[in-house]
Design a protein that fits this description.
two-stranded antiparallel sheet, 5 helices, alpha+beta, globular, eight-stranded antiparallel barrel
């Protein structure tokens, strides 16, 4: 039968969790493409082939491959855990600022991906990523829809299951200064189709932005009330709820919600939140093209 929608408190906490994340192109040469998720005796062997020239394009492709490899291995690890979800439509790893749960192999892959983010940040071509933010001119580099490729934050990590695959992405309106964090659920019989969290961004500098959560919109599969909109309380209330929900395990910055942009170009962006969590996002249309083009190398 159809799955029941979760209770209001779970939805609110999930919306908070989703709000914590803020919310390519074909490889330049085949050697930039990496093979991921090769199973050997039940263990993963993840191969990463970096171009010897050390160019920005090589680093980008290596980072994208590493991020995809981490996610692939993460999903298989989840499937092996006795605590793997049974198809609930909302399954975030955590509702507060905590690291994603993982084994030693995944920790190594995570650390390697963060290392690539930091290397790419040193070659960032955009000195002022928030130039034009909340102005009529806007920011062409930030504007658009971005797919989440990698995160260390458990609160933005949704487990997929056979009955409910979660798609996470972000829509940016730079003129209004809005980030809209989006989660869609694939289960056709689930009452909850997805949700949207509207977050207002206020630049603190050329590279940093503070975030204020505004509202959450629930998208329902129903003849009546297909869309439900709930205003969110002030950010300090949400962060207090996150501390309470984590039972003291969350490590939240006293700076509040926000992030520092580490890298931004036409189709890739990387940032670290004030709470210390890393995110890698790719322009969605570019990511879909690159993924299809790379299949012949896998």
């Amino acid at each position: 039968g159809a799955k029941q929608a979760p209770g209001p408190m779970v939805l609110l906490l999930t919306a908070l969790a989703a709000s914590a994340f803020d919310a390519g192109i074909r490889a330049v040469r085949p050697m930039h493409v990496c093979a991921v998720g090769v199973a050997t005796g039940g263990r993963h062997t993840h191969l990463l082939r970096m171009a010897s020239d050390g160019t920005r394009d090589a680093l980008k492709q290596s980072l994208i491959c590493s991020a995809r490899g981490f996610r692939s291995a993460q999903e298989e690890w989840w499937a092996q855990q006795s605590s793997a979800p049974g198809g609930a439509p909302l399954q975030a790893e955590s509702f507060a600022n905590k690291e994603v749960e993982m084994d030693t192999s995944l920790q190594t892959m995570r650390d390697r991906t963060i290392e690539l983010v930091q290397q790419l940040a040193a070659a960032n071509p955009t000195e002022a990523p928030f130039a034009g933010w909340r102005t009529q001119a806007g920011s062409a580099l930030l504007e658009g829809t971005w797919e989440l490729l990698f995160t260390t934050g458990a609160d933005a990590t949704f487990r997929s299951s056979a009955s409910s695959a979660a798609s996470t992405y972000q829509q940016i309106d730079s003129r209004k200064g809005h980030f809209t964090n989006c989660v869609d659920f694939g289960a056709p019989d689930a009452k909850l189709r997805g949700f949207r969290v509207l977050v207002a961004g206020y630049p603190l500098s050329d590279t940093e932005v503070a975030l204020k959560f505004r509202r959450v919109t629930l998208l329902r599969r129903s003849r009546w009330f297909k869309t439900l909109v709930f205003p969110l309380p002030p950010s300090f209330v949400l962060r207090a709820a996150a501390r309470w929900g984590s039972k003291g395990r969350a490590a939240l910055s006293n700076r509040g919600a926000g992030f520092r942009m580490l890298y931004l170009d036409d189709d890739l962006r990387c940032h670290v939140t004030f709470d210390g969590q890393y995110f890698v996002q790719r322009r969605k249309e570019a990511a879909a093209f690159s993924y299809d083009a790379a299949q012949e190398f896998f």
